[in-house]
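Attaching the record inline, Q. Sequence:
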Amino acid sequence: MNIHVFQQTRDILVDLLDKGKWAIITIPLFTFFQTYIFNDFDYLMWLAVLVSLDTVLGFGLAIFKREVEKEKFGDILIKMIVYSSCLIVGHVLENFTVSGQTMSGGEYLKFIIYIAILIKEAISVLTNAGKVSKKLVPVFILKRLKGFNETGDLTHLTQNFTSQDGEKSVQHTNSDQGPGL
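Structure, as predicted:
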C-alpha cells in the first residue's frame, strides 16, 4: 500500500514539474511578485554580500572567542524577516498608485530605506572586522557610517570629523560631495 502512495506522489510531482505546466503556474506568480512585492534583485545581491560577510565574520569571531550561542542563529532569521519587510515597504512606497498615477517621492523613500539597510550592515561588518584587528579598520569610517545611521542625514558621510586626538580626518568640500549629497 505504501508503495502505491509513493508512486502516486512521484507521478503527481513529475506531472507538476513538466515544463509547460510549471511555467503556467510560475510566470503569473513571479509577475505578481515583481509588481507588488519586490523587484530590485541587483540591490538584493549587494545586500546578500554584506549580510553573508557579516555572518561569516560574526560567526568566525564567536568561534575564535569560544562564545558560539545557538540563540544567535535565530537572530539571522529575524534579520532576514526585518530586512525583507523593509524592502517590501520600500518597493510599495516607490510603486503604489492612486487613480492610476504613481505618487511622487516614493523613490526617495525607497532610496533612504535601502541605503539605511546597507549602512547598518556595513557598520556591523566593519565593527566585526575591527574586533578581529583594531588597527586595520579606520575609526573615521565607522564614525561617518554611525552618524548617518543615527540621523539619516547623508552629509554625515561627507562632512569633516575630528579624531580623538584633535586631528582632522580627510577633508571634503561641497564640490567633493557629488550630486545630491
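Confidence is low (pLDDT under 50) at residues 163-181. The beta strands are 97-98, 101-102.

More tomorrow.
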